[in-house]
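WARN retry 2 of 3 for item q-0093 after timeout on previous attempt; input resubmitted unchanged.
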Amino acid sequence: MKLPLSWLREWVELPAGWDARELARRLTNAGFEIEAISSAASAFSGVVVARVVSAERHPQAEKLQVCRVIVGGADAPLQIVCGAPNARAGLVSALARVGALLPNELRIGAARLRGVESQGMLCSARELGLAESSDGIIELPEDAPLGADLRAYLDLDDAILEINVTPNRGDAMSVLGIAREVAALTGAPLKTPAMLAAALDQGGAPFGSGDAMPVTLQPGAGAARLLARVLRGLDNTRPSPRWLSERLRRAGLRPISAAVDVTNYVMLELGQPMHAYDLARLHGGLSARHARAGERLRLLDGRELELDQGALVIADENSAIGLAGVMGGERSAVEAGSTDIVFEAAWFKPGAIAGRARRHGLQTDASQRFERGVDWRGQERAIALATRLLLEIAGGTAGAVTTAELEEELPRIRPVQLRSRQLQRLLGASVAAADVEQRLRALGMGVRPEKAGWSVQPPSWRFDIEIEADLIEEVVRIGGLDSIEERAPAMAIVPRALDSGEVDERVVMRTLAARGYQEVITFAFVDPALQRQLFGEQPAVELANPIAADLSVMRSSLLPGLIAVARENLRRQQQRLRVFEIANRFLVEAGEGAAGARGATVREQKMLAGLALGARLPQQWGSAATPVDFYDVKGDVQGLLALGGGGEEFLFEPAAPRYLYPGRGARIVRAGVDLGYIGELHPSLVRALDLTYAPILFELDYSATFRANLAQFREVSRFPQIRRDISFTVPVDVAFATLSERVSVAAGSLLKQLNAFDVYQGKGVEIGRKSIALGLILQDLTRTLTDEDADRVVQTVLQDLRSNLDARIRE
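OK item q-0093 returned
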């Protein structure tokens, strides 16, 4: 929000010494971030107020005029050649004298234009940086002091603060809102500007019209107040006065027409959005209601919407004429030729407006204010000011204000209790009771002292004051956040005892970091299209108010976020990547369709996911660049699985969910429970996602995977080991995990370690079979094993393999 300092000063007097920078510092310490301080106009010098005393056609150019210009005093008239269509005798305008410096470093010098000398330049608003475009030179009031410096006359050195108002402070999105804050900070009284005071005294204007616009409200639609007033006999072709147009420009809005400019001015000053309708285009009275099924609306920007059933609209007797709180409709728009209009001001529940603008790709000044909450008692004041302003500019007469109100749907702002002990505990500092009361009353709150503290009644414009902590924040805010002394917290810090049955998350993260992985934190909401590409059609938790169309569902896996990270890194020429994330995924269970369907519930599940892409090792001279493969990442995952002390309990079984390359993926199982998957991304997805390399992915159920085995004592044998090697062939689809299980069962307690040291397929081995060589390490706790003992174990193992796995011994 842009706030001209000159406008703020009409509402509150700033203390001596409070320039723009000091005010910005104070507001920042009160919770309002000042993003920038600028001047009302670009830098220029040497421009003065001047009067055109004559304007004659240039003898050599039809579109040029030779003007004689005076700047007052004893100076002789200056001859200026000007091409502006509005240059005429008697016009007071802006003259850049010889030597003047205009924006963009343009230096004005004496010149000859088509043989006629020109001693300066009459300036347009665009040439002085006061507007994006202009149709002629600036037109100043008749009584403007000739020869005066234009910057001083128009107060173009007026400071403009660009304020970042937090989403909970809709009340501060106006000159009045910031003025209230400044008054509380300084102790100065809040003033009522003369124009507003006059409008309130007269109800806005003399009543010359008997018209009254009927207004109605639909209960439960989200509109609790709706006010309207008819104005007749206007001349909307008259331009807004320079002071009003200039205030709009300094606040970041473009002047359009008198009626529209007035509604924008009122919104900026009082924080109450308004709308103007062409009375001739309305059919009957105004109402605020829910949109009907299939109802359509063409907005002021030309966009046509099919309204959601239940959307809040402003309508006449025929159809919707505006998306309430967001934008008006094209059918009822006020134009230059409009002579009779209707002003409308309303109060809408923030929840009825929130998200409506974004849903249709819109973001308007009105929606920003309504969805944060406006003062529900401020509509009469807004209509009174708008009426007086417009009648002064465009003439005409005004009818009575008609009001519809649903009292039971208006806000009920209840008192909030503030305890003095809690105030001191949360702040870590003492604040005198008198200071607490003074600060809260300065913010417009009602304060009643009680035994334990105070009962505080928030004002009608403060929707963010709901609990005791909100009041404590207000007390410290107005005192200045920089006034609180820094102290260490006075509390006992008791570390949580780590469950002996779980692996510390920090150990998991450090292990991955040691293996070259970096932690990332991605959004919990993802692109529904990407999630469907990976996992197909499956129930997903849909967001009611997404921040973007490609972030509209909650993730059912961490992999979409990691893949998005990989794509972004590849776009930035980062060809080697190792990332992981520990976070929750959101699963829809026990129902059909998206979350919210009857019977559907949402379960959060903590997961660990990782992605490896690019070369196996960083670029180096000692080895060729080899792409990372399944076994590289499997080794990383096995290192994680061993952290709980039971690495041998995990099995990698061949499996290929739809997003993994068939034959290059595995399911990870422990005690018959599926824990997750590891594998290479499917080639079709690699192409569809425009990835340079196929990433290797893994995802694990964190809680089930990192359940630690309790440490137990195991006696160490004092007797030597014996090794026996066996070699055999088995069908190619027999996994090592299956072999290991059979060997362990057959060998019994004497088997201490099993190694696979050779796997071969090719010449000399039947098609459809593979050769495997295993090393068996045998040991006993009570005696030295003999050759006969070892041979007996080997024969038992071989017999088991022949019977169960079709093993054939190689001699």
